[in-house]
Design goal:
The protein is an alpha+beta fold. The protein has 2 helices and 5 strands. A hairpin with a 4-residue loop joins strand 3 and strand 4. It is flat and about 40 Å long. The structure holds zinc ion. Zinc ion binds next to loops. Zinc ion (ZN) binds next to loops.
Length: 91
């Protein structure tokens, strides 16, 4: 009983901590863009598993296959740092 109580309390505290930490960490965001046209209107195949606890589908794996909505075909997706992009855009 005590273990369950402390676990619940800890997870809440950890959640709050990770949320406040997340704001700082968010300074460096990544965008996934199409390697061909640079659009971020991209999708990726993934596998989801049903979580009984969360009562929702949870992402189990992200597959290599990527699709660009603008090119309308299978493309390689690349990571771009949002911070770097902002700097280049404001010049
Ligand atoms: Zn594209």
């Amino acid at each position: 009983m005590m273990i369950f109580r402390s676990e619940g309390g800890d997870s809440n505290a950890e959640e709050r901590l990770s949320r406040s930490k997340g704001k700082i960490a968010m300074a460096k965001k990544l965008r996934i863009v199409c390697s061909a046209c640079g659009s971020d209107n991209v999708r990726r195949d993934a596998l989801a598993v049903w979580s009984v606890e969360a009562q929702a589908w949870e992402l189990a794996a992200v597959l290599d296959c990527g699709n660009c909505e603008d090119c309308e075909c299978e493309r390689r997706l690349v990571d771009v740092e949002v911070a770097d992009e902002k700097i280049s855009l404001t010049i």
